Structure formats: structure tokens, C-alpha cells
Amino acid sequence: MNQQSKDNQPRKDNQPILPEVDNIVAVGAGKGGVGKSTIAVHLAVGLKRKGFKVGLLDCDIYGPSIATMTGIEGTSPQLNNDRKIIPFDANGLKVISMANFIPKDTAVIWRGPMVHGAVKQFLSDVDWGSLDYMIIDLPPGTGDPPLTLAQTIGVTGAVIVATPQPLALNDAMRAAQMYQKLGIHILGIVENMSYFICPNCNTIHDIFGRGGVRKAADKANIAVLAEIPLNLSIRTNTDSAHVEDNFDKTKNPQIAPILEEMINKLIKQVKFRNENYPKPEPLVVKKS
Ligand SMILES: Nc1ncnc2c1ncn2[C@@H]1O[C@H](COP(=O)(O)OP(=O)(O)OP(=O)(O)O)[C@@H](O)[C@H]1O
Ligand SMILES: [Mg+2]
């Protein structure tokens, strides 16, 4: 819980959990399967490629897939001398995923307090060090877990991932509204699986109705960070932990510039938010 004194300083019996993390960006979605983890990992890798120090935290209790997408699946967490968990190093990214703490193929029923306990531990008991950005993959949907997590963590803002079909888009815009109601700034929306470019004839096919997100986002005064096509390299490179390759202009000339622009727009949105709105209240934890 955020517990602030009147002068907006953390109370003396509390300490900020992430004092050295400048910007926390939560990635959410109105529903599952729209590419939320894919976008989260691309945001993290893209920011890292710009020279920022980046952490990636997988809070998706229902389907933690960041471990697979960053190639740290099956590795066991280690502790440092202060008995803090050392984040995994995925090519320069600091990564922590729920998946590394749950035996593979084990179904865990997460009750509310357990989720909060685990996430609090991921924030306070992990040696994140100083970071320019922390990207958080939230659980999908507009239920209690994603909203409470985003609010509890005290994020700089949220990026919403949506596909353009009207039904999916409605859910995404509802998610954006709910985050806003909780005082969480929306940094932008990403239209994923926006269109398909035929690899044989280069014709663009708007399978799901490209542009739907832009219309809805314009109406809600939310920035569109990218329109990302349905693309084979995105799927194969993401699922095999080769996300860096999607940013390579030689290997992926169609995708790399779109991803690059998404990162530039996110940086701009974070800067705008930090310059124009009060700092998110630091997450504080009671000393036991
Ligand atoms: N633009 C894209 N082009 C091709 N494949 C994609 C694209 N975006 C995501 N995918 C693929 O779709 C699948 C689902 O993506 P992802 O796991 O990121 O979705 P999610 O929203 O995180 O799902 P969940 O709700 O289950 O966590 C993955 O195999 C991913 O590689
Ligand atoms: Mg996911």
C-alpha cells in the first residue's frame, strides 16, 4: 500500500521498494491472447537496445510466458550475499518471471493475497539495482488482479495492447478506462496483429479491420504507439527467445522500423507524462 506523509515523503517506518527504478511501465490488455507478453518483451528489448538499463517483470499469474520469450525457462533463481534474488540476465535484460518459481506444468490456484505476496516479493526481495525502465507484464483482463497490481505497484503508466476486431477493441478500451479511473496514466495503445502483409505479393490484408484502434484511441485522447502486423518472424523469434532479431533491419526490414518507432513513441510518452503529471506515489513497504 502507498502510505505517504502529508509532505509526500514516504513515512519513516516505511521504505520505497524500488527507489532506484525511474520508470515503471505496466503492459495490460482487455483480454488474453492479444500479444501482451509479446509487446512487453519487445518494449523491454527495444529500450535496452537504446542503451537504457531495463528490467522485465512477468506478473502474469495465469500464463507467465516471459521466461520462454527471454530464454530463461527452466533456470533456478539464485540469491546474492544479502539473500536477495538475483534477476536473470537475458542478454542484458534483468528478468524475473513467476514461471521460474513454479514447477513446470504445475497448476497453481492463485488467491488474491498470494498474488500480492508474490508480487511484493518480486519487487522488494529481488536485487533489481538501478534501472531506467521496468516493464511489467500484467495478467490480462479487467478483473481485480491486473488492476490492483498496477495500482499497488505505483506505475508510471500503462501500455494497453489490443487487436482491432471490434469486440477485442471494446474490451481494451474498457481496460484503459478502468486504469484511468484508478489514476493510472495511459502511455499509449498498441494495435497488434493489425494487418497481414502477404510474403509472396506484398499485398496488405486487413484481416481484423486495421485502424479500429486508432479511431477509438483518438476519441479517448490516447496515443497509438504502433500498428504491428501479424508476422511470422514476430511469432517465431518471440517464442524462441530471439526478439533482438525483430529489431534487425536487414533480417526484418518490414518489422524493425515499426518496432523502432514504437520504442521512440513510448520514450516520448513517458517523458511527457513525467513532465506534466505528479510522480507516481512510491511503493512503500512496512519494515517488519
Ligand atoms: N504480431 C504478431 N504476429 C505474429 N504472431 C504474434 C504477434 N503477436 C503475438 N503473436 C504470437 O501470438 C501468441 C500469443 O501472444 P502472447 O503470448 O504475447 O499473447 P498474450 O496476450 O500475452 O497471451 P496471454 O493472455 O495468454 O498471456 C504467441 O505465440 C506470439 O508469438
Ligand atoms: Mg502473456
Helix content: 25-40%
Count of distinct structural domains: 1
Which fold name fills CATH's third level, the topology? Rossmann fold
Residue-averaged pLDDT: 87
Give a short account of the largest sheet. Answer: 9 strands, mixed
Question: What is Rg?
Answer: 18 Å
Q: Tell me the name of the CATH class.
A: Alpha Beta
Shape: globular
- Relative strand content: 15-25%
Termini Cα gap: 14 Å
CATH superfamily: P-loop containing nucleotide triphosphate hydrolases
Return the structural class. alpha/beta
Quantity of strands, as a count: 13
In short:
With 288 residues, the protein is α/β, with parallel strands linked by helices.
Which terms summarize this structure?
288 residues; alpha/beta; Rossmann fold; 9-stranded mixed sheet; two-stranded antiparallel sheet; 8 helices; 13 strands; 33% helix; globular; binds adenosine-5'-triphosphate; binds magnesium ion
